[in-house]
C-alpha cells in the first residue's frame, strides 16, 4: 500500500460516498476511504477503486495518521446522531486547524451548533449541501459549503475541482457561516419537492385529457427544448417512455410517495420565519395525502365529484396552457424559496449571494435547469432584489403566461382534478400583487374576541382597541401579531 499521505478522507462508503471518492481521485486528489464496517473498505479497494490512488484505513486513528495536515475529513453518513458520534470519536485524534466536513442532509440548526462547538475546540467545521444524486457525486455535484469561514481556503481547491460546472463557472461557492450551507441545501430540496409536484399535476391533467404515455412523453420532450429545459422535465420524458417485458412501467407503480424530511423542514422553516412558502408546503402535504392510499380507495367509492369530465375543444392549445401554467408556478416556487433564504439571512446574519446560489444550482443538482440562469441574471441586475416576481424578466413571463395558468387551474377545479401546487402558487401570486387584502377584518375579529388591537390606515405604529360590544372594556390584551 502506498505511503503517500492523503489530501482528504471520506467516511461512509454507500454509493454516494464511493462515487464522490472516485470523483476526487479522477481530479488528482489522494483520498483515504474509511467505513465503520471495515470489510466495505477492503471490498471497495479491490473492486470499484482498483487501479486508482485511493487508499484505505482500518480505523479512525489509521485514517487520521494517513492525512496531510491540516487534516480534512468528510462525513457522508446518516444525518443526526451518527454525525455527532463520529465527531466525538474524531475529536481526540485531531489537532487545531483540522477540518470536519458534514456532507449529509443535516438540519441547519445541528450544523450551526456543531460549528460553534467545534470552533471552541479549534476545529473548523463545514456543513455542505451535496446535490446531484449518485451520478452527480461521480461526475460533478452541486456543492453548497458553509460553516467556519477559515475552512474555505483549505477545501476550496478540492470542492471546486470535483463540482459540476455551468460554462466556466464552478457550481460551488462559499455560502456563509454556521448552518448556512445546509439551510441553502434544505431550500434547494424544498424547491425540488415543488418542481416534482408541479410536473406530477401536469401529468395528471394530461392523463385526464386522455393522452397516451407516448403522447405525454413527447410533450415533455418538447417542453424540455424551451423555457422548461431542466433535469426533472428530461427524466419525466424518459420515465414515461420506459417499458419492460410487461409494458409501460409507470402505470404499475403504486401512487404513494415517500419523503426523507427535507421538504418538511423547509415548510417548518417557512412557518418559523413567517414566510409564505405555500407551494412547497402543498407539495409536502400532497405526498402525505398520497400515503393515505387505503383511505383514498375507500373514499373514492363514497365521495362524489363533479359530473363533467375533462374535455377541451383544442387539446394542443390546452397542452400549451399547461406548459405555461407550469412555468408560472415554477417561478413562484423559486420566488418563495429565495424569500425564505433572504429572511433567514436577516435573522442569522448571513451574507448570502443569491445570484451565486442560483449558479450553484445551475448544474449538477436535481433542480438544475436553464431557468436558473435567468434567476442569476436577475440578482446580477439587482443584488438587493426583494422578490424575483419584481424582476423585469419574470414580470414579463407572468404577464405573458398567466391567462394560461388561470385557464388550467379553473378547469382543473371544474373537472375535480387536484392541482394543489399550481393553485397555491396562483393564490400566492394574486395575494402578493394585491394592495389590499381582507386582513383588516381578521384584525377586527382578533380585537373583538381577544382585545389584541389593530392599526388604522394612515396611523401606522399606533395600536388601538375598540370596545366592540360595550361590555368588553377598553383594556387591550397586547399588540402581539400571532
TrEMBL record:
NADP(+) binds at residues 12-17, 35-37, 77-79, 105. PROSITE patterns: 6PGD. The active site is at 185 (proton acceptor), 192 (proton donor). GO terms for molecular function: NADP binding; phosphogluconate dehydrogenase (decarboxylating) activity. Residues 181-469 form the 6-phosphogluconate dehydrogenase C-terminal domain. Keywords: Gluconate utilization, NADP, Oxidoreductase, Pentose shunt. It holds the Pfam family NAD_binding_2. This is 6-phosphogluconate dehydrogenase, decarboxylating. Belongs to the 6-phosphogluconate dehydrogenase family. It comes from Corethrella appendiculata. Homodimer. One of its GO terms (biological process) is pentose-phosphate shunt. It comes from the Eukaryota. Catalyzes the oxidative decarboxylation of 6-phosphogluconate to ribulose 5-phosphate and CO(2), with concomitant reduction of NADP to NADPH. Pathway: Carbohydrate degradation; pentose phosphate pathway; D-ribulose 5-phosphate from D-glucose 6-phosphate (oxidative stage): step 3/3. Its EC number is 1.1.1.44. It is an enzyme of class 1 (oxidoreductase). It catalyses: 6-phospho-D-gluconate + NADP(+) = D-ribulose 5-phosphate + CO2 + NADPH. Substrate binds at residues 105, 131-133, 188-189, 193, 260, 287, 446, 452.
